[in-house]
Write a structure and sequence with these properties.
Helices cover about 40% and strands about 20% of the residues. It is of the alpha/beta class.
Length: about 350
């Protein structure tokens, strides 16, 4: 909940044969909205607050798109800000009206509901886009998103969409940032510098790693109530802050490393790549930048690709990943315009 990314993407080709190229990106901070969004994450029953904040998220998103300065946009795909995710309900907050009024093109929004209505988890939602961007004919590839939660896409060499695996692994930045806010009074541990100064507490490490592995084994998408911050903070009252952050960072990194150790290529993206101890805990990795996709742009670019796939008649979620029912209908977005 730190900003809105707008990512401009060039799409060539049609459907599953398309090629996507990164053009540019812009970020609009949402500092003044963060408190409202966090409050709504805890209690989203206030309809007036939901509507007001949804409009403001739309305005922030418009500002981010305008920063790009592109005249000939063909398609806009809007994910919105997740404030609640507990299938079968998931809320991505955004009112697209100001964007619809500004641009004369197709505008898509609400990418998860169609999957949820078919009994799916609505997440992870990026694996098919990862396949478009990162598949390789000769090497097994793992795409690791170090976001609020860590989610992973596994692309076997020379795979087809039916072969893709994808799952939420465990909490990641949500937990680390909660500790930073409580213990450091900052939004996050910049570059993991505090964690770098600490020593791992073996007892807490073992307990936390078991909980993180349990999240992986539950075979569901993670969301509201899964950040483990309350439990960790209660367990660590007598542990120094640097040691606590070192322990949690090490536990998260260990679970990720054990999950991707068999992949020949491991590509990292997401805000967690700036956390040096976390990044170093995952071996033999490259950033997605090495393949033409800036790490911060990967999720926004994935939305553009999923938007293009849906307009070409391709479902954007995969049954083996979200658990949704098979259907001959396109599982995609709501169309806000035209």
């Amino acid at each position: 909940m730190d900003g809105v990314d707008a990512v401009a993407t060039s799409i060539e080709g049609h459907g599953l044969e398309m090629k996507a190229s990164f053009l540019q990106m812009a970020t609009e901070p949402i500092d003044d909205l963060q408190k409202q969004l966090r409050a709504l994450s805890d209690d989203f029953t206030n309809d007036t607050a939901l509507k007001t904040t949804s409009l403001q998220v739309g305005e922030k998103t418009l500002a981010a798109i305008m920063q790009l300065g592109i005249d000939n946009i063909d398609l806009i795909a809007l994910h919105g800000q997740t404030i609640f995710h507990e299938p079968p309900r998931s809320i991505q907050l955004i009112n697209p009206s100001c964007i619809v009024d500004t641009f004369n093109c197709t505008v898509l929004t609400d990418p998860r509901t169609a999957d949820l209505l078919l009994g799916g988890q609505g997440a992870p939602i990026t694996p098919l886009a990862d396949w478009i961007m990162f598949r390789d004919a000769a090497r097994d590839t793992a795409v690791v998103n170090l976001g609020g939660f860590c989610n992973i896409t596994l692309l076997p060499k020379n795979c087809q969409p039916r072969d893709i695996e994808g799952f939420d692994l465990c909490c990641c930045n949500l937990l680390l940032d909660a500790i930073a806010r409580k213990r450091l009074g900052t939004q996050y541990d910049t570059n993991g510098s505090c964690a770098h100064e600490g020593t791992v507490d073996s007892n807490l490490f073992d307990q936390l790693k078991n909980k993180l592995e349990s999240q992986r084994n539950e075979n569901r998408s993670l969301g509201t109530g899964d950040d483990l911050s309350r439990w960790v903070l209660n367990q660590s009252v007598k542990i120094e802050t640097a040691d606590l952050l070192a322990t949690v960072t090490s536990a998260i990194g260990s679970v990720i490393q054990e999950t991707v150790c068999d992949s020949q290529r491991v590509l990292l993206a997401g805000g967690g790549i700036h956390n040096v101890p976390l990044k170093n805990a995952i071996w033999a990795t490259k950033m997605t930048d090495a393949f033409g996709v800036p790490t911060q742009a990967r999720e926004g670019m994935a939305m553009a690709i999923l938007g293009a796939l849906a307009t070409d008649g391709v479902s954007i979620t995969l049954p083996q990943i979200t658990g949704r029912q098979q259907t001959n209908e396109v599982v995609g977005w709501s169309q806000a315009s035209p």
